[in-house]
Amino acid sequence: MRVLHASLECYPLAKVGGLGDVVGSLPKYLTDLGCITDVILPFYDNEKVHHLEYEEIFTGSLSLGENSFDFSIRKLLSTEFGFQIYLVYQKELLYRPDVYSYEDDTERFVAFQLAVLNWVLSEEIKPDIIHCHDHHTGVIPFLVSQVDTFQSLIDIPTILTIHNAQYQGQFSYDKLDYIPQFDLHNIGLLDWDHCINPLATGIKCAWTVTTVSPSYMEELQHQANGLEGLLTHEKAKCIGILNGIDHDTWDPEKDPMVIENYGVKNIVSGRKANKKWLCEEYGFNIEKPLFAFIGRLVYEKGADLLPDIITEALHHLDVNILILGSGNAEVELKLKELKETFPNSYNTYIGYDEKLSHIIYAGADFLLMPSRVEPCGLNQMYALRYGSIPIVRRTGGLKDTVIDIGDGGFGICHDKVNVQDVYNSIKRGVEFYNDQKYYRKTQKEIIKIDHSWNNSAKQYIELYKSLKQPQ
Q: Where is the Starch synthase catalytic domain (predicted)?
């Protein structure tokens, strides 16, 4: 079976968030299970792509209204990724240093999807499944099933995986001519709330819709940024499959980015070496419990509450807090200012540093995830893999992967997104940390939890097989 994943992100070539991690790791596990797995994404203007060798295997052109754009498909020659990667090179629209946040993102995303399908049309051996990821590829199921040009692909099952339903890619009908000719009686498949909504389109037209955790699928029927009714209507073809993590990349015994490697047997000394580096780098007392946050400083992550959470915690508790992230400018400023208020117990790194994130997982005692929305969450799985205790709000994938110590589990959970609930959880963390025997025992247990893609990849294989069976 051959599966083609279409995505805007794929680690390590292009990563903004969890989407990049998923598309950079799931295909490896699918390949190991005997599924021929390819990934196609844009050819970006970044150094991670530039040094790679490739061959040009297809050239074509596409139209967005009255404008025509030439493009090519480049096949990477490297075998280091564990699966085959193809890149869409399009100079005017796709060859950019960043993945998102351009004024012409609508044009970029539609062009990418048209280029992918034009290439698939030309291939003698077609994929058995086209697996689309988020709204950036949500129009593909419509194009395959409704557009005259692509009618020969209509029997190829399409899957849409929703990584985050908050972002839907809406654009107005004055850009309808970006979509090649189709029967206008079916224009309702593009429409949601009086505009073209690629995520809604994908939900309507894909053969199957998946989310990145079972709980997130349930939550979307009640809170999906306006798509609740649609997801409820289409729930018969929806399934939640929990994301995994790449145990080859995220392995404290082999990770080249951490200060000292460790496993279950030397977890105490190994983690202490990493914590010591963090404390020396950011001015902390190593004897105090270290709480950390890693992620985008945005509303859905609860980041707007971080300044008040930090202030409340450091006024009442003898702890260290380290923040790694970027996002909302106002939140960034407040977090920077707090360094003057708490110079010996708080610090922040505004931006993102992959190496630093690995060291934090390996050295911080607790990871804070006060998320309002967390479709799956990978950070808590990374934390568990490295022996750091996650402190999470019960939502989405956090609810599916972290069990509270009060319920016989290994993490600390709270139900609401407010300063008091998070503060109380930090306070519980301090009490937990002070019981070193229990704390160390829990660390040795969580590092052995298997959150790799093994189980989830098997679920995807079964899904692919079911779609290829006679309907």
A: 2-232
